[in-house]
Design brief:
- By secondary structure, the protein is an all-alpha fold.
- Helix content is about 70%, strand content about 0%.
- It has 6 helices and no strands.
- The protein is globular, with a radius of gyration of 15 Å.
- The two termini are about 30 Å apart.
């Protein structure tokens, strides 16, 4: 997959700046939408509730913020891809070896993030911007999958 162009990076950073203005709220929305759209992913969330009034649950909000912070670290390193890959390698290692989450679940959350962006930003999340994000998520998936293949369970 091709690396991101300068225009892609600008598209991603512009959208991300808006999403990261409220990481707890937007992260909570992503977690709840993940559970709704991909109910099979609930099995991997052992420490947070997956049913009930998730809108008000502080653990859902906390985990949503963790997702946002992790993605923020990657977005902050778009111009330092080696560092972004190190961040992704640590994330993949933990999700594979500690939480036993299949790599395919990252595809699910990436799709949820795209859908949430479209809903929150409307026309501002244009086709061009969406394609930049899809390219980023393709690169992230490649790196995560490579990391899953190269790490062994400790």
């Amino acid at each position: 997959m091709a690396l991101l162009t300068d225009a892609d990076k600008k598209n991603i950073q512009r959208v991300w700046a808006k999403l990261f203005e409220n990481p707890e709220e937007n992260g909570k929305t992503i977690v709840i939408r993940l559970f709704r759209d991909y109910p099979e992913t609930k099995a991997y969330f052992k420490t947070i509730p997956t049913e009930g009034n998730l809108q008000e649950d502080p653990l859902v909000r906390f985990h949503g913020r963790r997702i946002m912070v992790a993605l923020n670290q990657v977005v902050e390193n778009l111009n330092n891809w080696k560092q972004a890959c190190r961040i992704l390698d640590r994330l993949a290692d933990k999700h594979k070896n500690v939480h036993q989450v299949p790599a395919v679940n990252f595809q699910s959350i990436f799709q949820v993030i795209l859908n949430v962006c479209k809903e929150l930003l409307g026309n501002e999340f244009s086709t061009e911007v969406s394609l930049s994000w899809e390219k980023l998520f393709g690169l992230l998936s490649e790196q995560i999958n490579a990391s899953y293949m190269s790490t062994s369970k400790s």
